[in-house]
User: Fold this.
Amino acid sequence: MARTRTDSAEYYRPLRRLLVGGLVAVLLGLFLLWRIDSPRVERFRAALVDAVVPNLEWALLPVAKVAGMVEDFESYTRIYEQNQELKRELQQMKAWKEAALQLEQQNARLLDLNQVRLDPKLTHVTGQVLADSGSPFRQSVLLNVGARDGIRDGWACMDGIGLVGRISGVGERTARVILVTDTNSRIPVTIQPSGQKALLSGDNSPLPPLEFIEDADEVRPGDRVVTSGDGGVFPAGLLVGQVVMGNDRRLRVSLAADYQRLEFLRVLRSHELVPITDAGGLVAPPLLPSIPQPEVDAEGEAAAPPAPGGGDVEGTGSGDAEGGDAATGGGAGAGAADG
Assistant:
């Protein structure tokens, strides 16, 4: 029995070696065939591919199906992960929505208690940016709205999110906007939540610095910066950006407006500022010192005897005394007293 097993093993071992050797020889031949650079060999390779590959479609079909199933499974996994992420974001958005509704109701109650009237004239005109004349020395853009649209100098411009600049120069059909980053730009701002007042000065850099801060220790990176409304140039509460620490260790502002893609700007209408030509109506005249009046004792005056010849004077007597002489007036008064 053991001899039979040994004979079969001795028989199959050389056969396996021959098969392996033949397979290696075939693969080596195919490798050399595909490495030979010759027109004849190229035509032979093309004919071999045309003869073999179409007949192997039935063998490649399961492979293609399996590859498609793997891709579908991976796509399903990605979709599932995205769905879970969207669910989490939706829950967060619901929480933010609830908080926003509560804040809106609270704001409405506070406005009602304070009897605040919002400015109905604070509307806007939207214009398209025609040209960007930015340079190392001046940064401004040109809008396609002008005097015919009611645009006036000094009005604030926003890109829908943050403050961009102000109108400086109005034509009939165009208007120029000086950006916040321009060196000629000076904007009074308020830093929230500390409420510190400061001045935003442009320096032709994307991060303009904050100057003249009341208390710099109360300001932290990340605080919101809005317009203060001081000077009456800009309406109060317009978003400018947030505080950041510059490389020069100065407090700067990361602007909320996207200056890389300024396509449409919103020009805010403001109240017309009446120029002051005469300060007399604003400054009250100095008050004159009052003359002290003598105090009158009503009881003493009633107890005092009447003055001689000082009887009651009727209306006619007082009227005649104004035009007539003293003697005539005196006689008339005596006659009235006798009667």
The radius of gyration is 49 Å.
